[in-house]
Please model this.
Amino acid sequence: MSKNIVLAVTGGIAAYKSAILVRRLKDYGFDIRVVMTTGAQAFITPLTFQALSANPVHTTLLDPDAEAGMGHIELARWADLVLVAPASCDVMAKLAQGLADDLLSTLYLATKAPVWIAPAMNQHMWSAKATQRNLETLTADGVHVMMPDAGSQACGDVGRGRMPEPEVLAEQVFAYFQQKQRDLAKKVGILAGQRVVITAGPTREAIDPVRYISNHSTGKMGFALATACYAAGAEVTLIAGPVSLATPFGVKRHNVTSATEMLTHSLACIDAGCDVFIATAAVADYKVAEVATQKIKKSGDTLAIHLLKNPDIVATVAEHTRRPFMVGFAAETQHVEDYAHKKMIAKKLDMIACNDVSRSDIGFASDHNAMVVFFAQQYAMSAQTLPRATKFQIAEKLVESISVALTQLKHHRA
Ligand code: PMT
Model:
């Protein structure tokens, strides 16, 4: 995430954790500038932070070089968030009183960015009345406090005052910016107010307790779409077959195994309210007629398994009385566009995105895809080519196309 963070490190043994914090924040894509108090430099060197942040470290208020480049006012303006971690008892007192005699305290007064503090100190210092008074003042002034953990302390005490682990702090900062982006997308995103349901991944049809029929889908395409729809302001529900992907931020998820389960969840989502249904799942077309209750033992040279047609999920949803805007996918190995176009008509879809799954550089399991998208007759555009790109880029393009088609549909109905 391209946001600027000023990390202010103050004097305390937890300062060593801040070095790891820089790494974790950079993992999320943040640009970091470190400000160190004199106390902090007694615990860890500016060189460490310079190497980790890949930026110069700021240590003094009146540094002619820094003032020409990035002094306290520039830093205050540059920051999207100021994070004081660890925040010592002394610095909390200083900020609460509004003193302005060093780089951090002047930066604090000058910045319009949100300020977060992660206090770390001896448990008695933390619970001291003066510290708690300062904490109240800072909270009332709008400072966000990342509360210290309880546990064994460097001084030998056991109690509250430990700085939370860097991973936890970094994740909270990331979640904050994601939520801000989300709030904005909910207001102005191209899918703001839309309830989107996405099927993703393969389905598995049991043969016996240890075997099943399935395919190579990993869910990557569907999960990328869930991320893109959410980023565009939609409320997103994923109905995921057996895949090993983490749930995208903010997305609701139902895990299913078979096509029948996927259909049940899809219909429940339609009943609950759905505006756009996107079927990226590679649903098994057939299921085993009679699933063996025990493992089938090896006997003759051949084994015949009787298969029955599975319900067609996307076609069933398209026939629903509360039919949403329908987006299908088509996975083909030959006559890709022709077969896909026919599927769109047969399944009564608004749009279909087709990919050639005989290619190893796109389609199943790849991080990339390339698609041709067809639109039903009532839309102004008939086809769109999406050249090879990452599945996230393809997903963003598909979201744009869905939004355009939804607008046309609205005008059409008006
Ligand atoms: O998951 P990945 O590894 O990222 O791979 C992505 C993908 C290749 C799976 C994806 O891009 C894709 O092509 N998904 C559609 C797979 C598929 O099953 O296509 P199909 O042509 O067999 O089915 C056509 C449409 O009908 C699809 O929207 C499918 O979800 C739907 N269908 C099919 C059968 C069935 N019983 N019910 C359905 O709803």
